[in-house]
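Readers of this paper often ask what the protein records in our data store actually look like. Such a record has a labelled line for the sequence and another for the backbone structure tokens. Nothing more is needed to write down the fold, since each code stands for a local backbone conformation. The remainder of this section carries one protein's record, kept here as part of the documentation.
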Amino acid sequence: MPNTPAHDLALVNWSRTSRGVAGFLWYLAIPFTLLNVVGYMKPAGRWRDCYTAVTHLACVLATVVLTAWLIVITETVLEYVPGLAGEALLAEALSAWLPAAAVAVAILCRTWLRPERRIPPVLACAHALFALVVAAVVFGCKPARMERSSWPNSFGYGGDVPAAALGTGADPRADAMMLFVLGSTFIALVLAWALWNSAAAVVTMLVFLVLHATGAILRLGAGWLMAYLEYIGAVVDRSSGMAASSHLLRAADPEGDRVLLLDLVPIVACAAIGGFAVAFAFTAFTSKWKDAAEREENHAYRLRSFVHLVVTALPQLIRRALGAAVVVYAALAAVVWVVAILTSWSGWPLTVALVLTHATVAGVLVFVIMRGRLSAVPKVFGTIADVAGFWPVRYHPLAGSSYRDEVVDGLQGELECHREDRVVLFAHSQGSVLGTWLLANEKVPENLRDAAGHLAMEGPSSLPLKENLHLLTCGSPLKSLYRGFFPSYFHDWFFLRASERTAGWLNAWRETDPIATAMPQAVSDQVHNEQVAEVNLGRLRAHSDYWIEDVPTTWIQAALAPPGGATP
């Protein structure tokens, strides 16, 4: 613990969301939250409007995908609900309209019942309408009733196996959901390409892979649950449930040893995600490990330096890995096509795929039950949530709530209480982003800015005067993550505006800190960048313990000292 300072000390703490149910819902909202983040990755040039339009299209597609999977899951559950065997129209209406209405109601309630989230009403209404449109199309067109042509049926062993070989014959209906999965994935690829941003493109593709994998896993899990309830004699009965002929978006579950192509979606999606991970790891290792390995320090230091180099160069590394990832996606698509169209997929290939799929489903179910509290998962999730939760909901109404405005307003209120005092705003990690955002975007009327947009400090302000306000950032991701991924918001003028609002700015960082760097060159004259000690008592301090470093503590004492050198 550091020694008690001679000056007054106020600690400001904050959190993304409450624990329990609200925190768990953050996991479910991750795909939509990431798409909301993609919207803020827009370029700083003239393509901003086109980029925004493409992002909105991708978000609408995500709502359509969500609704389709909920319809499929509902169909699976209704197969076991007694009394629907002879009520085809009721079963069809329930399976199509119930999940779509649930999505629409969730979006609208989230918007109007929680106005503090500031979700644009037009955005919410548009997404709710698209969910209902999906239900109307599915209910009216009944895509699963179409007879297949060249596409294999849902539970054959491949197009080359005659119907007689299957014993009971092949179902002639098209696997509409499998066609939808492939079609929506292709559209997502086109939209990702249209973004012309490698990081945004990768995030967009990962989101749709996760959506499809999660939907298929939950559908399979729902089938397992209902089958188990029937087995133990609970109030479910598949023989009197929704008839096989009533399915609107997919064929019924097969009997015996046959299997749905839809059940292979999770393993294909996971393989695609794994393919990108391998491509990225290879790119990162070949481009950054040599620089880290040249360090004369021990292996732990070199390893942390390698992580630092990789994280601080993420936008560039993602761009280099994108080509390899596209090759992996294309190879997997070819495998799926061959398996589905040209070959028999019985025997050991099918067995291996099903074992992996079921293992994936079991793993996800364990993750859900444990609410993500497994080893390093909370730390990784926390890092993602810190960045994603910074951005207000403006692109997808189901994105996780933003903490930024509430925290910044609270921080401004705390500084207002010390408007006449000498103040050092000490901001660590994500706190440095929030504190600097407050200073750079201070709510000052436009007539108090000069022609270049700089703040005119002669005007009124609720914050301490410029000569009394100092900023100390440490472990800051401002340049490494925010400037790299969000150039339209964290540009040179952002850093210049923040520096102009302070009498001094010290930025402390380490080479073993994964996210910390010096501030951009544009403010090199206004910001004192200080690389502090990496080791204390033989331990690498990495992202922590900045508050007990000699350089920051000495700088704080000097900043708080009143004119004349008296004790602060």
